[in-house]
Description:
By secondary structure, this protein is an alpha/beta fold. The protein is built from 21 helices and six strands. The protein has a six-stranded mixed β-sheet with strand order 3-2-1-4-5-6, sandwiched between helices. It starts with 25 loop residues before the first helix and ends with a helix.
Amino acid sequence: MARTNRKPTIAAFTAEGAQAYAHLTPEQALRRSVLSCLLWEKAFYCDGVEIFKRITDLAAQVAPETLAALAIEARQRFHLRHVPLLLLTVLARTGAGSTLVADTIDAVITRADEPGEFLSLYAVQNGVAPDALKAKLSAQVKKGLARALRRFDAYELAKYDRAAEIRIRDVMFLVHPKPRDAEQDRLWKQLIAGELQAPDTWEVALSAGQDKRETFERLIRDGRLGYLALLRNLRNMVAAGCDATLVQDAITARKGAQRVLPFRYVAAARACPQMEPALDTALLGHLSQASKLPGKTIVVVDVSGSMGARLSGKSDLARYDVASALAAIAREVAEQPVIYATAGNDHTRVHATQLVPARRGMALVDAIWAMCQPLGGGGIFLKPVIDFLRAQEKTADRIIVITDEQDCAIDAGDSPLLAKPFGTHNYLINVSVEKNGIGYKPAWTHIDGFSEAVFDFIREHEATHA
Length: 466
């Protein structure tokens, strides 16, 4: 008689049907859903609502201390804005009564529009209308928001006091912050009364009918134009006839660029090709001072069809643009970089991998993008890719695969879990939010996110695993 009380079989698969790693901890699953997430935006295989629910469900399963650390990491190291606020709403529940809640809210909220964004998400999570929030706010949530509000000056408050369901003044009425001095008390009274002077921003100036060229040039000279606003308005500046040298110098100066994600430079270059040389310098110039990854580094960029998913509904950038920007950074921080692009054919289930020309910066991004269709546009096939690279390269100090992890190999012999990377160190960087992944076997060090912080992690990892 056959035995019925068998060990349960646990299986997981990529969205394309390949075998995925089936034993993710809640923390691992949460990290892969958070660190490449632009909240509410759909991915190739799942929509924004599904991602939202998955994150909130997983966040409730990890320890409050772990959740707090991830929220801070997502905001401070990976420069994400909305998803850290979502994590705070879960922390408010799982860490209720602990000072950890107030401390984490204070650490994560760094822009004056974020208290209102946080409370809007908090209302959704608690199933109440924004005007019914008061009864739902814990003492620790109020303390954290009150501390965060004290850091904003007149310019920040005026800039972000926008029409919304929950305005900054509404947050103040809910949490009753204490001003740090008489000057802040006066400022807050002006905010509540709607008497703050309009901020000196490009939006305000242009809506008032001021000359575009004069406005942009003045704000640049006065240091009043944020770096992301600078990148997003390059085409407008060129069209308005702004001083090209002034604009280029502002780009390469990188004032305020610390929280700009690498793909923003790619977007700016696509929108305004005239400024690409300055953007190249800004993207890569500061890396010359970074410590190099010693030896030979093989970088593999996934250019499969799913990597063509747009980052957001308003963006014309795709996941492979993010991956290519990271590859361009890897090219600069590695002593001996070798870069490949990979895809394949979903119908025949055959991989295709090719060496990328030895270019730099935006030229490298363009070269990788141009290889998408010639390589077949199908999914990544991790095991055949690694076998191919072993035959081509023989050895490596490290292998870095940048992918969304949605392997297409349905033949058991080509399972991505059988891939045996041959580098001294082997990394798989996930740049998407799909549920299941392939890079969690002991042979790989799995990293999530599309910030330059992934290379800081690699340096730190190798320093402690020499």
